[in-house]
């Protein structure tokens, strides 16, 4: 998921590195907070990437 966000220019290399050193829960929280601060376009990119990466989770979260 982080790779997709990096490819789409949603997060920077530094933001990816910071998320990579955190625990799983802290990583998820950091990524979501970072993307939310960047606005609706970045949030849409996160949702799209999540739907591509994990269809089961995205269905459970009613994202699809």
Describe, in plain words, how this protein is organized in 3D:
The protein has 64 residues and is an all-alpha fold. It has one domain (2-60). Helix content is 75%, strand content 0%. The protein contains five helices and no strands. Helix 2 runs antiparallel to helix 3 (24-37). The longest helix has 14 residues, at 24-37. 11% of the residues are buried. The mean pLDDT is 92.
Describe the structure concisely for a colleague.
This protein has helices at residues 2-7, 13-20, 24-37, 40-53, 55-60. The protein is mainly α and 64 residues long. The chain has one domain (2-60).
Low-confidence residue ranges: none
The residue-averaged pLDDT reads 92
Query: What's the β-strand tally?
Result: 0
Largest sheet, strands/sense/barrel: none
* SS summary, helix count: 5
Helicity level: over 70%
Oligomer: single chain
Give the strand content.
Answer: under 5%
Tell me the domain tally. 1
Q: From the alpha-carbon coordinates, what is the Rg to the nearest angstrom? A: 11 Å
